[in-house]
Design brief:
CATH class: Mainly Alpha
CATH superfamily: lambda repressor-like DNA-binding domains
Largest sheet: 2 strands, antiparallel
Helix content: 40-55%
CATH topology: 434 Repressor (Amino-terminal Domain)
Shape: elongated
Radius of gyration: 14 Å
CATH architecture: Orthogonal Bundle
Number of domains: 1
Mean pLDDT: 95
Length: about 80
C-alpha cells in the first residue's frame, strides 16, 4: 500500500513540480511541506488543497471488507 506522502511525491513528478513549487502553490514554506511529507501529517483538507493545487480530482472511498461494497466520496 502506498502512503499519502509517496502518492504526493509521484503526483509532483507527474506534474513536474518540486517541493518548493508545490509549497508555493499551497501557500506554505518548503520546509513545512517537507516536514508534513516526512511525518505523514496530512488532514483531508490538506490533501484536498494538494489536489486543487495540482489540478486533480480527489476521490476517497470506504470499502466493506466482508461484502466488498464501496462508498466513494468525490470532491
Amino acid at each position: 500500500m502506498m502512503t499519502i506522502s509517496e502518492a504526493i511525491k509521484i503526483l509532483m513528478i507527474r506534474r513536474g513540480l518540486k517541493e518548493a513549487g508545490l509549497a508555493r502553490l499551497l501557500g506554505m514554506t518548503q520546509p513545512n511541506l517537507n516536514r508534513k511529507l516526512k511525518r505523514e501529517h496530512f488532514t483531508v483538507e490538506d490533501i484536498q488543497k494538494v489536489a486543487d493545487a495540482m489540478n486533480l480530482k480527489l476521490n476517497i472511498s470506504f470499502t466493506f471488507i466482508d461484502t466488498g461494497e464501496e462508498f466513494v466520496f468525490r470532491s
